[in-house]
Amino acid sequence: MPRLSAITPSGPAHLGNYLGAVRRWAREGRPGDLYFVSDLHAMTTFYDPQRLRSRTRDLLALLVASGIDPDRVFVQSDLLAQLGPLTWLLECTCSFGEAARMTQFKEKSAARELAETPVRVGLFTYPVLMAADILLQGTAEVPVGDDQAQHVELARALARRFNGTFGEAFVVPVAVTPPAAARVRDLADPSRKMDKSARDAAGVLYVMDAPDLLRRKVKRAVTDSLDRLEYRPDEQPGLANLLEILAACTGKPVREAADGFSSYGELKDTVAEVVIEELRPVRERISALLADQPELDRVRRRGAELATARGAERLEVALRLAGLGR
Ligand code: AQP
């Protein structure tokens, strides 16, 4: 069953995005799987337009540079002409109560209210846009973490309701748990996950960081004073994070990753080097793509054309069933 996955340009891509998602997409993707840069989703909270545009381009380059088939990759806003009407159909299929139950909205809006920043209507309706993303492409499976499972459930409910009320238009999607992958934590604060939009970049290893910067960040990673080189995530979360990164980059089982090291310093040196080597080819390919704007534009245009063609008939059927058109 083809699957649909996305990455949001809410900040520059980091090692967590790469090891936890993009590398796996490139290695384990099935024929028919689709990937997109969800730039429209990055607009639900404060954003800078120029940065949004350049980060979108950077993430597109990352997906392609990582080895994902460029024909399976697109940018969400390139489908705006289809997503707009479909989102409206789905908003008119969704009840207010249903949308208001989304726990991610409750959490994010509460945090914004606390910070006295306006909560955008787009933050409230974005799960419906996400449903449109899924239903337009007609992918049956959507691999998501716990925080997004409720949104896929909403897409499922809306597809069923639309089909039941107006007639068969949509594939009813299902949320699937992605295969276990590294969950990379912030090096400066291992109680948090490594985050694109982290305020402090000290603990975030960005894919495009230069080798020296990566080395410095790893060297400064928070560990502990126990001086015990073992994988004990609850007692030694900082050390465990480094071991998980090492295991993910070398393919060794995490419980054996500490074998052979005699100090935290020595371990950090090795972690820095394996991360640098893991990211080097990707970084080089991204740089080459970004330097060849016409090629990247061509990839983007083709991805958009293919994605638009995939959704065109489905959208037309849905609009007609909903009573629109002549
Ligand atoms: N720290 C992480 N470790 C492993 N995987 C991670 N992912 C994100 N952070 C880690 C995975 O990257 C994919 C794309 O993520 P996203 O764009 O949906 O962003 P996110 O999950 O909200 O986390 P980010 O990248 O840190 O961004 P912000 O700052 O916006 O929260 C997903 O498959 C995700 O699991």
Molecular structure report:
This is Tryptophan--tRNA ligase. GO terms for molecular function: ATP binding; tryptophan-tRNA ligase activity. Its EC number is 6.1.1.2. One of its GO terms (biological process) is tryptophanyl-tRNA aminoacylation. InterPro entries: aa-tRNA-synth_Ic, Rossmann-like_a/b/a_fold, Trp-tRNA-ligase, Trp-tRNA_synthetase. With 326 residues, the protein is mainly alpha-helical. The chain has two domains: 4-176 and 293-321, HUPs (Rossmann fold); 201-287, Orthogonal Bundle (Tyrosyl-Transfer RNA Synthetase). It is built from eleven helices and five strands, in the order E-H-E-H-E-H-H-H-H-E-H-E-H-H-H-H. Helix 7 links the parallel strand 4 and strand 5.
Helical content (DSSP H or I, runs of 4+): 40-55%
Regions with little confidence, pLDDT below 50 for 5+ residues: none
**What's the number of extended β-strand segments?**
5
What's the Cα radius of gyration?
A: 21 Å
What is the CATH superfamily classification of the largest domain?
HUPs
Major β-sheet strand ordering: 1-2-3
Structural class: mainly alpha
Instruction: Name the average pLDDT.
Output: 96
Offer a concise description of the structure.
The protein has helices at 15-28, 49-65, 80-91, 96-100, 103-114, 121-137, 146-166, 211-219, 237-250, 264-291, 293-321, and strands spanning 4-7, 34-37, 73-75, 141-143, 174-176. With 326 residues, it is mainly alpha-helical. It is globular and about 75 Å long.
